[in-house]
Design goal:
There is one protein chain. It is built from four helices and five strands, in the order βααβββαβα. By secondary structure, the chain is α+β, with helices and mostly antiparallel strands. The termini are far apart.
Length: about 150
């Protein structure tokens, strides 16, 4: 896809980012309090550990990537978690996701990271077509425990 610019998220991106964020949350069937969204946006702009990139076509935001460089217990160099990736449904399959991921790779390298990793749902077939081309599927299984859930 030509004429797509990937750049760091900035304060003036908030309306377009909110539109994409709402669609991302709907895709994953999540309903977050407004306070969480507001806090995330501030983290992405400041020194909250997270960083954000956006894909822009013309003056319209069409995608985002949120990533988190962090220390690792298995290496001296840091690693990078690509936490959120979303591309507007109207432009999926056109290379925007690849551009965003490659921009995360570059940003992680600048920060000294030696690895970038991410998760997706096993039934996210369209995204996995791309991920299978630009990453390596791991054999790890993920477990979650939220503080308000009882152990079964």
């Amino acid at each position: 896809m030509t004429d797509v610019c990937v750049r760091p998220l900035c304060e003036t991106d908030r309306p377009g980012w909110l539109r994409l964020w709402a669609a991302y949350l709907a895709f994953y069937q999540q309903d977050l309090p407004e306070e969480v969204t507001d806090t995330l946006f501030e983290r992405l702009l400041g020194d909250g550990g997270h960083d954000g990139l956006v894909a822009e076509q013309g003056e319209r935001l069409i995608g985002f990537a949120h990533y988190l460089p962090h220390a690792s217990t298995w290496a001296i160099a840091p690693t990078c978690y690509l936490e959120d990736l979303f591309v507007d449904a109207t432009v999926r399959g056109g290379g925007v996701g690849r551009k965003l991921i490659e921009a995360v790779y570059q940003a992680a390298e600048v920060k000294g990271c030696t690895n970038v990793y991410w998760h997706t749902h096993d039934d996210n077939h369209q995204a996995r077509q791309l991920y299978d081309k630009i990453g390596v599927l791991s054999n790890f299984v993920r477990y979650d425990k939220r503080k308000w859930e009882e152990k079964r």
